[in-house]
Amino acid sequence: HPPVWQLYQATLERFGPVPTLIEWDTDIPAFEVLITQASKAQDYLDKHSAVSRQLKAHAT
User: Fold this and answer.
1) 3-52: pLDDT as tens digits
2) Residue 28 to residues 4, 6, 33: CA-CA distances in angstroms?
3) 2-15 vs 31-59: helix axis angle to the nearest 10?
4) Which stretches of the chain are assigned E, i.e. beta strand?
5) pTM for the whole thing?
């Protein structure tokens, strides 16, 4: 669901790297899908954290 990931990225840009839970409806997928989604969320978080560190380094 690309809109969910776009919203997550916008949230990271606004609030910074914070613990996140992306909620599913009642149609919970297989464990493998959940692990893949968790990995994807971690990738977004890692990318945002790296950008935040770069911006802070340039600001000083």
Assistant:
1) 888 998 999 889 888 877 777 788 888 999 999 998 998 998 898 887 66
2) 16, 21, 9
3) 30
4) none
5) 0.62
Per the CB < 8 A criterion, the answer to whether 45 and 17 are in contact is: yes
**Type of residue numbered 57:** A
d(CA 6, CA 8): 5
Neighbouring C-alpha atoms within 13 Å toward the C-beta of 54: 6
Distance CA(41)–CA(5), nearest Å, equals 8
Nearest one of 37, 10, 44 to 22, comparing CA atoms? 37
Sorted by sequence, the CB contacts under 8 Å of residue 31 that are 6+ apart come out as none
